[in-house]
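Example S7 (structure tokens).
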């Protein structure tokens, strides 16, 4: 490739022009971006962490999706379950606020996200059960989907809280940090046997 100098997305490139994926691979030989296939998946649909052991982005996407579904359900709630109308509107606002507050530095936000997700799972599952018993098919299906979305956000929230408690946010752990003593001893024995066989 030909050397070029130019300004693109606020950065000055000098030398050989390479695509973003090759630059990431050179900067980090073990990226958390899964495979080349993920380059073709829109970023809004990706749930893998850009920061190691931090899943706040996945939680944010789940909350925004749930908030949008609540807003789409407002006309249905107003005719079938009018008592849920203010809950849906306030719930959508709360979800968007917590999605905006989510960040890898504040553990209390991720704890609050886990609490909001738990309430969302319970609330939506109960509404889905009520709708099923009363033959409200649209409300049943929508709340089942919402319950699943909140279940995923609960999982990713608790996973991030655990990483924050262990102090592993942003760190890639070497295998030795997650192996017990017996496994480390067996691995050391196998390596010493293999090394001696090479000589």
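Recovered sequence:
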């Amino acid at each position: 490739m030909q050397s070029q100098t130019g300004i693109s997305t606020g950065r000055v490139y000098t030398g050989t022009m390479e695509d973003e994926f090759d630059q990431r691979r050179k900067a980090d030989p073990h990226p958390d971006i899964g495979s080349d296939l993920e380059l073709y998946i829109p970023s809004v649909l990706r749930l893998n962490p850009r920061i190691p052991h931090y899943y706040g982005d996945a939680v944010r996407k789940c909350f925004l999706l749930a908030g949008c579904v609540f807003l789409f359900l407002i006309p249905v709630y107003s005719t079938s379950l009018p008592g849920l109308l203010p809950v849906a509107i306030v719930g959508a606002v709360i979800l968007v606020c917590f999605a905006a507050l989510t960040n890898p530095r504040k553990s209390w936000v991720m704890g609050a996200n886990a609490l909001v997700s738990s309430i969302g799972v319970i609330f939506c599952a109960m509404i889905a059960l009520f709708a099923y018993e009363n033959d409200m098919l649209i409300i049943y299906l929508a709340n089942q989907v919402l319950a699943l979305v909140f279940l995923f956000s609960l999982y990713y929230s608790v996973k991030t809280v655990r990483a924050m408690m262990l102090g592993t946010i942003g760190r890639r752990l070497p295998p030795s940090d997650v192996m017990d003593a017996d496994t480390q001893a067996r691995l050391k024995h196998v390596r010493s046997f293999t090394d001696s066989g090479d000589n």
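Notes on this example. The first strand starts at residue 6 and ends at 8.
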